[in-house]
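Notes from the 1:1 (GR / supervisor)

We went over the backlog. Supervisor wanted to see one worked example end to end before approving the batch request, so GR pasted a single chain during the call. The sequence is below; no edits were made to it. Supervisor asked that the structure be written out right there so they could see what the output format looks like.
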Amino acid sequence: VAAEDYDDSEVVVHDDTSPTTDYPCFPPRGRQRQRTHTNNDTTITASTTTTIAYLETAFFDLHSEIYYSLIHHLCSCKPDKDEHWKLDTSTIPHFYIGPMKWLTPGFIRILEEYNTTTCGPIFLGTPRDPPDLTIVTTSYPDNFNPENRLPKVKNFKKINDPKYIFICHEEAPLSLEENATNVFWLTPRHERYVVPSFFPPAIVQRLSKKNMALQQQPSNKRPPIFLVMGDFQRAMKRNILSLQHTLLPHRNKNFTVRFMGGGNNPNSTNIHNELRSLFGDFYDNKFQVVTKAGIEEFMISVSEVDVILPLVDASNFHHEKGYQNGKKLTSSVMWALGFRKKMVLYKPLAELFGIVHDYGKGNDDDDDGMYFLYDDWVGKGDSSFHKAFGRCLDHLLEYDRGLDV
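Structure output shown during the call:
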């Protein structure tokens, strides 16, 4: 993203800015490029120093959805954020994302649009000068084990280095959490964490307005869409079986379930057959399947839906190969929070992110029906998950779309 392409008309607005904060904010982008003063009728332009923050990628689009939150957190004015994330606000922050070999065209286009609202310019590739801060965006506990002999795994040498931040994606030994002050996780179950629920506001708002405009046209009216995203072929990620009996009582209602995932898995074509075998007639009448979606298509697809179904319950939330009692990120929740989508959500997972209001279970006068919570799934029958899904669907049909329940 070239410096000439910056939109200086944009003014950065941080949702977490407070006039009482003791941590200063960065000036608007339009006033960042240079500082001028007058001396004996001569205008002197002084270059402003920069702070270089390098976000190091590991593979094509790997965990790319967290990058926006990491930059947003660096720009944040929160006085209580960890010292590792505080940049010198007397400088202009320059954000580099690289190396270039891992940046896909779709991700680059998203970064170009995000670049208009960040507190400093985004550059693509590796910085020429040594960065003031390097964020290793993909790390795992084994990366910090000094006995690991893999040549590329040397993170343990940078533990507690103030010029490095590591984002760890798995539960780690207690010793790492207690002693490595520059290792951060992605859920509030850890002492040091960043919740990656921020997405480029220009993109979120643009897609939202587009969908609203389409829905106002009678010819484009569609039924509510529920989204199951990510890897839905592994029970430790998504409990697909919990949907089998839940959908049956609603077979005559007007709705769609969209499955989006599979990635670059060469067996992703088998997803169609697997879903058809599990759900029978529902597959042809109410299901959409999107596989191998690029990063832009993924965002568009998320923006189109009404509800996200993480399909997390006792079978995978507490499991060490699942979500490790909330210590491992449930990305579906992050996308839902970032794009302001409704969720049918497992209560322990909801509580982890401070979601306590359950629509239909109290005073809903001032609530737009965002969250429908359920307890443990126990299999067949009239379970809590079945009821929560039904409450959400009926709410959408009755209030949001005016369709017959």
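Supervisor's comment: Confidence is low (pLDDT under 50) at residues 1-21, 34-47.
Batch request approved.
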